[in-house]
Amino acid sequence: MSTLSVSFTFLLFVLAFGSLECAIKCQEDTCDTLKCEHATPETCNKPNQDLRKGGFCNCCTVCFTTLQENEECHVSYLLGGPPATTACKDGLECKNHKCQKVHH
After folding, report:
1. Bridge partners for 92 per DSSP
2. Which CATH number characterizes residue 55's domain?
3. Is 32 within 8 Å of 59 (Cβ atoms)?
4. What residues form DSSP beta bridges with 88?
5. What is the residue range of the signal peptide feature (predicted)?
6. CA–CA dist 32, 48 (Å, integer)
């Protein structure tokens, strides 16, 4: 593959990624046009769950679960992926897919 071909491919990648990044930014009227399935107290009633703003651009009410020590957790590395609906409680961090105490 020639240097020109590699440069052109890289330029296309940068332009495509930049366009995608612009397309997923929240605008003032984003929530006006978004249809949400809002969580309710009736659907969010398990231990350690509470209602919070979340979803795309924090437009929706979601059921958020606070995970306790040794509970299974996941860290997403996807840029622009769906917002998390779980997190380890304060003082814990997700290591090896488990909420563990933070050691300083």
Report:
1. 101
2. 2.10.80
3. no
4. 67
5. 1-16
6. 30
For the question of whether the overall pTM of this predicted structure is more than 0.85, the answer is no
Token pair of 8 as six digits: 């052109």
Radius of gyration, alpha carbons of the chain: 19
Q: 74, 49 in Cβ contact below 8 A?
A: no
Number of domains comprising the chain: 1
C-alpha span between 69 and 8 (Å, rounded): 49
Structural domain span for residue 7 = 3-101
Q: Beta strand pairing status for 49-54 and 60-67?
A: antiparallel
Residue partners of 39: CB distance under 8 A and separation at least 6: 51, 60, 61, 62, 63
The predicted-structure confidence for 12-60, as pLDDT tens digits, reads as follows: 444 444 434 445 688 989 999 888 988 999 999 999 999 999 888 889 9
Contact 71, 98 (CB under 8 A): yes
